[in-house]
Amino acid sequence: MCPPRPAPPDSRAWLRQAALFLDIDGTLLDLAPTPEGVRVPPALPASLRALTLGLGGALALVSGRPLGDIDRLFPDRFDAAGTHGAEWRLGGSKQGAELPGTADLALVTAMLRDGLNRLPGVRLEHKPLALALHYRAAPQWEVATQALAAQAAQTLGPAYRLQAGKAVVEILPAGAGKGSAIRRFMEHPPYVGRTPVFVGDDLTDEDGFAAVNALGGLSIRVGTGAGSQACYGLPGPAELRDWLVQLVAALP
Ligand SMILES: [Mg+2]
Q: Which position among 23, 25, 69, 207 bears the catalytic label?
């Protein structure tokens, strides 16, 4: 566990050999009332393209969003781990993640729909290999939504686990997580041998912070987060975007 978080160290010490892993919502992009409502600032894709080029391709988006959703926001088809690592793409081609299929999830969909009839405003999102219950529009149902998700996860058994995030609770394959997604990238060129740098903002990112800490990398949390395992901090998405522009300027 790291003390209160200072700004990331001078990039001259690490940028040349870095592999950059970036969460999307609440990290690169400001949160919106719904996942569909986020806006990509016009200058951001150019920063990401320049960093990808400058780092020899070692840049990946690591998000809870499905890959298809990531590509709608960022049509450059960057390397990415979607659905918290349950899906991933490296060098333009989709890789298998050896996780259970979606058939089991159908078992609990009816149960969840039924439960959600009593929780107006809570939304069920179907992802490849996962289900998410969003309660940002109905925060009064937080506890009831988490209980409903827990019941569904219990029905599915040990192949799945619960993952809480900001105004969302998800039912994910047990083997999916941002930490394992980052470790998987680090085993393959152009990532292998580089220093992983992960930037995230949420509970779902803690697993990624722990992974890069263990690999001798840099963990950076955007926004507040008491008890986070991240060693460095940036105040918000706007400051992260400014920092990325500085990194682009510092590229060799
Ligand atoms: Mg996030």
A: 23
Do 70 and 61 form a contact (C-beta atoms < 8 A)? Answer: yes
31 and 94, same domain (yes or no): yes
Q: What is the pLDDT of residues 87-97, one digit of tens each?
A: 999 998 777 65
Taking the centre of ligand 1 as the mean of its atom positions, its distance from the CA of residue 206, in whole angstroms, is 11
Instruction: Specify the CATH number for the domain of residue 141.
Output: 3.30.70.1020
Q: Is residue 3 part of a domain?
A: no
**Is residue 4 domain-resident?**
no
Kindly state whether residues 89 and 186 are assigned to the same domain. yes
User: Is 23 marked active-site?
Assistant: yes
Query: Along the chain (252 residues), what's the average pLDDT of each consecutive run of 10 residues?
Result: 74 94 98 90 98 97 95 96 92 69 78 96 91 95 97 92 93 92 96 98 95 97 88 96 97 86
Place of tokens 């690490």: 14
Domain limits at 211?
11-98+176-250
Shared-domain flag, residues 80 and 180: yes
**Token pair listed for 246:** 């500085």
pLDDT single digits (tens) 228-242: 999 999 999 999 999
Q: Are residues 75 and 21 in the same domain?
A: yes
CA of 202 to the centre of ligand 1 (A): 5
Phi/psi for 86 (5° steps) reads: -70, -25
Separation of CA 203 and ligand 1 centre (Å): 8
Produce one character per residue of 62-93: b if its CB has 16 or more CB atoms within 10 Å, e if not: bbbbbbebbbebbeeebbbbbbbbbbbbbeee
Q: Say how many Å lie between the CA of residue 57 and the centre of ligand 1.
A: 22
The per-residue pLDDT for range 146-162, each reduced to its tens digit, is: 999 999 999 999 989 99
Q: Ligand 1 centroid vs 165 CA: distance in angstroms?
A: 8
